[in-house]
Predict the structure.
Amino acid sequence: MRRRQAKKHIILPDPKFGDVLVTKFVNNLMLDGKKSVAFKIFYGAMDVVEGRIEEGESPLDTFKKALVNITPGVEVRSRRVGGATFQIPTPIRDSRKQSMAMKWLISYSKKRNEKTMAERLAGEVLAAAKEEGAAYKKKEDVHRMAEANKAFSHFRF
């Protein structure tokens, strides 16, 4: 156990959209401390998204909609009870929900086969906004697994 709870870091909003959520996403996207490269990838993806959506919408709204669509509500955790291991559905706290959604979006973007990372990320964002794509499927699989194992929810601690 910890002595005290870890302090929350203050995250500054990004320069273009002025949104903290974008900075959190870029921090997850960043490799080897190259934040400016991560920002270029994200902003490039938002430019591609802007070209593919209808006139009235903003790319930031599409990105937020995509994140909401792939945010899980419950997850399964393994727990040993009497020599057997059970998958127990557990609700997720908000900060973990958000980070899981971001990580899924990034990991499934990397697995796509467009040419640049910005195009891959844009493709996955657009797919998630329409409730399709690999990241959305991952969320559905997690929910399906929790639903299948809800009989064991009384083992939750």
Q: What stands out?
A: Residues 35-52 form the longest helix (18 residues).
